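SEQUENCE AND FOLD
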Amino acid sequence: MALSLTPYLVMNGNAGEAIQFYEKALDAKVTFKQTFSEMPANPDFPLPEAAKNLISHAMIKIGDSDLMFSDNFPGQSSSTSGNQVTICITSDSKEQTGKSFDTLSEGGQVVMPLQETFFSPAYGIVTDKFGITFQFFTEGKN
Protein backbone atom coordinates (compact mmCIF):
# COMPACT_ATOMS: atom_id res chain seq x y z
CA MET A 1 0.00 0.00 0.00
CA ALA A 2 1.39 3.37 -1.02
CA LEU A 3 1.14 6.13 1.53
CA SER A 4 2.16 9.75 1.27
CA LEU A 5 2.02 12.69 3.64
CA THR A 6 1.36 16.20 2.40
CA PRO A 7 1.91 19.19 4.65
CA TYR A 8 -1.21 21.40 4.69
CA LEU A 9 -0.74 25.02 5.72
CA VAL A 10 -3.79 26.89 6.99
CA MET A 11 -3.12 30.60 6.72
CA ASN A 12 -4.76 33.74 8.12
CA GLY A 13 -5.70 35.46 4.88
CA ASN A 14 -2.27 35.42 3.26
CA ALA A 15 -2.20 32.01 1.50
CA GLY A 16 -2.04 33.68 -1.92
CA GLU A 17 0.98 35.73 -0.86
CA ALA A 18 2.64 32.63 0.62
CA ILE A 19 2.11 30.67 -2.61
CA GLN A 20 3.73 33.44 -4.66
CA PHE A 21 6.64 33.58 -2.21
CA TYR A 22 7.25 29.82 -2.39
CA GLU A 23 7.06 29.92 -6.19
CA LYS A 24 9.99 32.34 -6.07
CA ALA A 25 11.92 30.79 -3.19
CA LEU A 26 11.54 27.11 -4.08
CA ASP A 27 10.71 27.16 -7.80
CA ALA A 28 7.26 25.81 -6.90
CA LYS A 29 4.57 25.25 -9.51
CA VAL A 30 0.89 25.85 -8.73
CA THR A 31 -1.07 22.72 -9.65
CA PHE A 32 -4.43 23.86 -8.24
CA LYS A 33 -5.75 27.07 -6.73
CA GLN A 34 -9.35 28.03 -5.93
CA THR A 35 -10.77 30.98 -4.03
CA PHE A 36 -13.92 30.80 -1.92
CA SER A 37 -15.75 32.80 -4.63
CA GLU A 38 -14.93 30.08 -7.19
CA MET A 39 -16.71 27.42 -5.15
CA PRO A 40 -20.35 26.56 -5.89
CA ALA A 41 -22.66 29.07 -4.19
CA ASN A 42 -24.83 27.93 -1.30
CA PRO A 43 -27.88 30.17 -0.80
CA ASP A 44 -28.21 28.96 2.80
CA PHE A 45 -24.72 30.27 3.57
CA PRO A 46 -24.02 33.46 1.60
CA LEU A 47 -20.35 34.20 1.06
CA PRO A 48 -19.10 37.24 3.01
CA GLU A 49 -17.32 39.86 0.92
CA ALA A 50 -14.17 39.38 3.05
CA ALA A 51 -13.92 35.72 1.96
CA LYS A 52 -14.28 36.10 -1.81
CA ASN A 53 -10.59 36.38 -2.68
CA LEU A 54 -9.28 34.09 0.05
CA ILE A 55 -7.87 30.69 -0.92
CA SER A 56 -10.28 27.82 -0.22
CA HIS A 57 -7.79 25.21 -1.43
CA ALA A 58 -4.50 25.22 -3.31
CA MET A 59 -1.68 22.82 -4.05
CA ILE A 60 1.84 23.54 -5.22
CA LYS A 61 4.49 21.14 -6.44
CA ILE A 62 8.06 21.57 -5.20
CA GLY A 63 10.30 19.06 -6.93
CA ASP A 64 8.55 15.72 -6.35
CA SER A 65 6.61 16.95 -3.30
CA ASP A 66 3.25 18.62 -2.79
CA LEU A 67 2.28 21.35 -0.35
CA MET A 68 -1.37 22.30 0.28
CA PHE A 69 -2.83 25.60 1.46
CA SER A 70 -6.04 27.26 2.49
CA ASP A 71 -7.02 30.43 4.28
CA ASN A 72 -9.18 30.38 7.38
CA PHE A 73 -12.75 31.32 6.52
CA PRO A 74 -13.70 34.65 8.12
CA GLY A 75 -15.06 33.98 11.58
CA GLN A 76 -13.04 30.80 12.09
CA SER A 77 -10.38 30.72 14.75
CA SER A 78 -7.08 32.04 13.49
CA SER A 79 -4.20 29.69 12.96
CA THR A 80 -1.24 30.32 15.22
CA SER A 81 2.38 30.17 14.18
CA GLY A 82 4.38 27.50 15.87
CA ASN A 83 7.12 24.99 15.43
CA GLN A 84 5.14 21.79 15.98
CA VAL A 85 5.17 21.16 12.23
CA THR A 86 8.28 21.77 10.15
CA ILE A 87 9.03 20.99 6.55
CA CYS A 88 12.35 19.38 5.69
CA ILE A 89 13.68 20.38 2.28
CA THR A 90 16.22 17.87 0.98
CA SER A 91 18.56 18.66 -1.88
CA ASP A 92 21.71 17.19 -3.38
CA SER A 93 23.04 20.64 -4.26
CA LYS A 94 24.65 22.99 -1.73
CA GLU A 95 24.05 25.82 -4.19
CA GLN A 96 20.30 25.14 -4.37
CA THR A 97 20.14 24.71 -0.60
CA GLY A 98 21.86 28.06 -0.08
CA LYS A 99 19.62 29.88 -2.56
CA SER A 100 16.40 28.53 -1.03
CA PHE A 101 17.66 29.11 2.54
CA ASP A 102 18.56 32.73 1.76
CA THR A 103 15.25 33.47 0.03
CA LEU A 104 13.13 31.92 2.79
CA SER A 105 15.16 33.89 5.35
CA GLU A 106 13.99 37.20 3.82
CA GLY A 107 11.65 38.73 6.39
CA GLY A 108 11.96 35.62 8.53
CA GLN A 109 14.29 34.38 11.25
CA VAL A 110 17.30 32.10 10.98
CA VAL A 111 16.99 29.49 13.74
CA MET A 112 20.23 27.69 12.82
CA PRO A 113 22.58 29.17 10.22
CA LEU A 114 23.26 27.06 7.13
CA GLN A 115 26.42 25.12 7.94
CA GLU A 116 28.31 21.88 7.46
CA THR A 117 27.44 19.23 10.05
CA PHE A 118 28.55 15.65 10.60
CA PHE A 119 25.46 14.45 8.73
CA SER A 120 25.16 17.05 5.96
CA PRO A 121 27.43 19.36 3.97
CA ALA A 122 24.80 22.13 4.35
CA TYR A 123 22.15 22.00 7.08
CA GLY A 124 20.17 24.83 8.62
CA ILE A 125 16.78 25.90 9.95
CA VAL A 126 14.77 29.02 9.13
CA THR A 127 11.33 30.26 10.10
CA ASP A 128 9.97 32.27 7.19
CA LYS A 129 7.93 35.47 7.29
CA PHE A 130 4.71 33.41 7.51
CA GLY A 131 5.84 31.56 10.66
CA ILE A 132 6.54 28.28 8.81
CA THR A 133 9.73 26.51 9.93
CA PHE A 134 11.89 24.80 7.30
CA GLN A 135 14.81 22.47 7.88
CA PHE A 136 17.34 22.28 5.05
CA PHE A 137 19.21 19.02 4.55
CA THR A 138 21.78 18.59 1.80
CA GLU A 139 22.61 15.03 0.84
CA GLY A 140 26.13 13.84 0.10
CA LYS A 141 29.58 14.77 1.20
CA ASN A 142 30.38 18.40 0.50
